[in-house]
Specification:
Blueprint: H1 6-16, H2 18-58, H3 63-81, H4 90-96, H5 112-127, H6 135-147, H7 161-177, H8 180-191, H9 195-198, H10 201-218, E1 227-228, H11 237-263, H12 269-276, H13 278-295, H14 305-312, H15 322-336, H16 343-361, H17 366-382, H18 385-393, E2 396-397, H19 402-417, H20 423-432
Parallel strand pairs: 1-2
Length: 438
């Protein structure tokens, strides 16, 4: 029967192997749960930042006290109870996927406990008005949920713990941006290089399902709304190239600064203070972020979502220093060591830089250059150009700009590589230093 009718034999094996179907059901159920947890985390961060905006509008001076105190509290709690929750979360997932990490040490980087800590502490970061994003934390949060699924899988399941974490991390990006395709590309481009994970249909389905949870809750809405572009012409060539190169230089500098700052290898006074007294350093960082926020009339607080959306709609107050202020605020927030992502701030910085270049070159359709800037700066920082391109592509109304977005992301990523080592790979290596000596 097996030789003459291989198709029917395969179907029978599929139908009668209950362990196979149980494993699939568990993976997909936890993928849906991971997506819903990210949706809940998104809601919590939005509510937290709304409360910060209410406090700031009621008492303009409140960030000068509230932001430093909150930053100190976040760093103290994290260092005492959940040191693995620091930073973006993407380097932790990459470290957990490394062959250097044994099974008993995975919990240093990914676990349900770290998922809960990341949700609470990152949300507090929004409540404090720090310049951070929720997308990187969403990766670690969803990976922790998916990794827990291994406890419920049948003993002979072919789904590995590494596969679960990879799928969870990618589902986190998909749910955070409401773009399932970007989650798949993120898994391929950043989280793993293993062909068996790339081609595993069950894990790819889990990524898409996790992302679809956001679609089911929020509808088919994009992160910044729809960016409408007009008919393109050769007039875009010079401004578009200027955006790509500028974002590549700025994004490469940002990545280099962050890696150097977090590595502790610099011998400057600030780095020594961070090593000697991390809480005092956190207070100084919180105060600096508050001052930058006041200098920008509140534009640099949070992820930059509101300001970027206003720019796209043409309602933002022109601020020639926004790019610099947001750049520094995001760098300082990350340097403080709080749980914080850089995806959304990178989109905000890139969009503002594109808008500045549109004003400088008198380009008629500023949202077009803003879209190119978003893709370019994100690609330059992460050095994951295809993920950056797909995330921004989902925001564009029409396909006329697709090739320009791809070219912008590739050029910016190439320029960035001349300045900085791969961003998340370098940070993942720092995370691996936390492994106990053998």
């Amino acid at each position: 029967m097996q030789t003459r009718f291989p198709v029917f034999y395969a179907i029978r094996q599929e139908l009668y192997d209950w362990r196979l179907w149980t494993g699939r059901a568990v993976v997909l159920a936890f993928a849906a749960l991971a997506g819903l947890v990210v949706v809940g985390f998104t809601w919590l961060t939005e509510q937290a930042f709304a409360q910060f905006l209410w406090l700031k509008s009621s008492y303009w001076w409140s960030p000068l006290l509230w932001t430093p105190l909150s930053t100190v509290a976040i760093v103290w709690l994290m260092r005492r109870y959940a040191i693995g929750a620091t930073g973006s979360g993407i380097p932790q997932v990459m470290a957990a996927l490394s062959p250097e990490v044994s099974r008993e040490h995975v919990s240093l980087y990914v676990s349900v406990r770290l998922t809960i800590a990341k949700i609470l502490l990152a949300s507090w970061g929004f409540l404090a008005g720090l310049s951070l994003g929720r997308e990187g934390p969403s990766v670690q949060i969803a990976a922790g949920v998916m990794h827990h699924a291994r406890r419920w899988l049948p003993a002979q399941s072919q789904v590995s713990a590494q596969g679960l974490m990879m799928a969870g991390g990618a589902a986190g990006i998909a749910a955070a941006f409401n773009t399932p395709l970007a989650g798949v590309m993120f898994a391929i481009e950043e989280l793993t290089r293993k062909s068996e994970h790339r081609s595993n249909g069950l894990l790819l389905a889990a990524i898409v399902l996790g992302g679809m949870m956001a679609v089911s809750v929020h509808g088919n809405a994009t992160y910044f709304g729809v960016i409408r572009v007009e008919n393109l012409s050769m007039a875009l060539l010079l401004p578009g190239l200027l955006v790509a190169v500028s974002c590549g230089l700025a994004g490469g500098l940002f990545a280099r600064l962050v890696v150097l700052s977090l590595s502790g290898q610099s011998n400057d006074w600030f780095s020594r203070l961070r090593l000697r007294s991390p809480l005092r350093f956190a207070a100084a960082c919180g105060l600096a972020v508050a001052l930058l926020g006041l200098a920008s009339h509140g534009a640099t607080y949070g992820s930059g979502y509101d300001y970027t959306r206003e720019m796209l709609e043409g309602n933002a107050t022109e601020s020639p220093f926004y790019v610099l202020l947001k750049f520094v605020a995001t760098w300082i927030t990350t340097w403080a060591g709080v749980p914080a992502g850089i995806f959304a701030p990178s989109l905000a910085i890139g969009g503002a830089l594109g808008n500045d270049i549109a004003q400088l070159t008198s380009y008629a359709n500023a949202p077009t250059l803003m879209a190119l800037g978003m893709a370019a700066f994100l690609a330059a920082v992460t050095q994951a150009p295809m993920t950056a391109f797909i995330i921004v592509m989902e925001m564009v109304d029409g396909h006329a700009l697709v090739l320009s977005l791809m070219a912008s992301a590739l050029v910016a990523s190439g320029v960035s590589r001349l300045i900085s080592a791969p961003f998340y790979t370098s940070l993942a290596q720092l995370q691996l230093q936390r492994l106990p000596p053998r």
